[in-house]
C-alpha cells in the first residue's frame, strides 16, 4: 500500500496500516465509551493553564489517569483517547498538532502527552478498574509541513523515507478506489506492524480508525484481521448504504447517518419519523447495527449544546432527551468529554475546550443524568439478560413532530424535543409489551402510571424531560425512598 499526500500547512502525507484483536465486538456492545482529546482533558499536576486553542495546552496521559474517577463515577466502561504517535512539531497555518492527527512517525509516541511508561500506566490503571482503552489511529496519512514538491522524505522513518511510499496527489474516486490507489504490500505491512506493536505493548482493547473511507476496503480488512481488537471506522457520510460498506472490512463504523438525523430531530428541524426511519434502515442494512458506535458530538463536529435548533437556543432538556436516545437505541453510546458540562463550542477547533475550565464539576445536572443513564442501561441488561439486551433491536412504538416512543428490553422510553420553551402535552404509547393492569414507574422522575388494554398507556408531560418506563416491581433500585440514586417523590398519576 502507498501513502497519500495531505495538506497541513501546504501539504502532508497519507498512509495505510494493518491491525490485530483483544476485546471482541460482542464484548464492546455492552460498553459505553467516554471520548477524550488527551491534550485538553487533564494536566499531569492537575493545574489549569490558559492556552491558545490551536496550541498544546498541556493535557497528558498521566493527568487523564489521575482523573479516571471522574469518568468511571459516571458509569463509563471505556475511554477513547486521541492519537498517541509522534506528530509534526511546528506551528502550521492551522496551529500545532495537539489533536494528534498529523503523525510523522508511527514508531514513536508523542512526547507532549508523556512517556511510554505513562501510557502503559494509563492502560494498566483502566484495566485494574475493569475499564477498557480505545486509541485513535490514523492509517490514511503521515504529515509534513511542506508543499508536496518540497517534502523532505528523509525525515520519515524507514520504510516511509522515500517518495515511492506515498501516493501522488490525486482526486480519489470513493466509488471505485481501486482506480486511484495502487498498493505497496511492504508499506501496508510496515504500518500494520506498527499498530500491532502499539496494541501489544500498551494492552489496547479497541481502535477508532480515522478517515477509514480514504482507505481501500481490502486494506481495511487486512488491518482488522491483523490488529486483533475491535475497530470502529470513520466514514463521514449521511448515507446508510454508503457507511454500511465499511462494516465487514471492519467490526464497526462510527454512526454518522444516525448523527445527522439525531441532531435534526432533537433540534426540531425535522420530525422524529425521519430519525426512526434511519434507525430501521440501519437495522436491516448493516451486518450488525448493535456494534455501531453512536455519538452526539465529537472532535470534528460542533458540540450538541452549540446548536440553536428552532432558534430558542440553550436547552439542557434537549441534551437529556438526546442522550437518553443515544443510550437506548441499537448500538454503542459514546459521550464526548465536556458534554456533561454543557461545553458549547461550535466547529473545530473551538469544540476542543480544556476540560479543566469546568473544574470537573460533578454536581452539574448532565453529569448526574449520564450517571443514571449508564446505570439504567446496565440494569436493563441484567433483567433481560445481556445476550438478549445487546442483540435485540430497539423497536419503535410511535413518533411524530415532538415525541417518539421506543422499547428496549424491559424499558419503554418516551422522548421529546419540546425542551424548556414549549408546553409538553405528554404522549400516548400504543402497542408496548406491557400487559393491561401493569404498574409502570418512570426512572427519571419516579412517577407511576397504569397500563391499559393492548399495552397502551399515557406518558404524562414531564416538563420536557425524557421518560424511562419500567415495571414498578423493577424500579426500587432507582426510586425507593431514601435510595441514593433518587430523591424524587414517588407519586401515582391518574390516567
Structure description:
By secondary structure, the protein is an alpha/beta fold. The protein folds into 2 domains: 5-389, TIM Barrel (Alpha-Beta Barrel); 395-492, Golgi alpha-mannosidase II (Immunoglobulin-like). The chain is 27% helix and 18% strand. It is built from 14 helices and 22 strands. The strands form 5 sheets. Strands 11-10-9-7-4-3-13-12 form an 8-stranded parallel beta sheet. A 7-stranded mixed beta sheet has the order 14-15-16-21-18-19-22, covered by helices on one side. A hairpin with a 4-residue loop joins strand 18 and strand 19 (447-450). Helix 6 (185-202) packs parallel to helix 7, helix 9 (256-266) runs antiparallel to helix 10 and helix 11 packs parallel to helix 12 (365-384). The longest helix is centred in the C-terminal third of the chain and has 20 residues, at 365-384. It is globular, with a radius of gyration of 23 Å. The protein starts with a strand and ends with a strand. Mean pLDDT is 90; it is low at 5-21 and 481-495.
Number of structurally distinct domains: 2
Q: How many DSSP helices? A: 14
Residue ranges: pLDDT <50 for 5 or more in a row? 5-21, 481-495
Q: Taking Cα atoms only, what radius of gyration do you get, to the nearest Å?
A: 23 Å
Largest sheet: 8 strands, parallel
CATH fold-level name of the largest domain: TIM Barrel
At the first level of CATH, what is the class of the largest domain? Answer: Alpha Beta
Strand composition percent: 15-25%
* CATH-scheme architecture of the largest domain: Alpha-Beta Barrel
The class by helix and strand makeup works out as alpha/beta
The tally of beta strands, per DSSP, is 22
The CATH fourth-level homologous superfamily of the largest domain: Glycosidases
How would you describe the shape? Answer: globular
How far from one another are the termini?
A: 65 Å
Spatial arrangement of strands, main beta sheet:
11-10-9-7-4-3-13-12
Mean pLDDT: 90
- Helix proportion range: 25-40%
Protein name: Alpha-amylase
Organism: Lipomyces orientalis
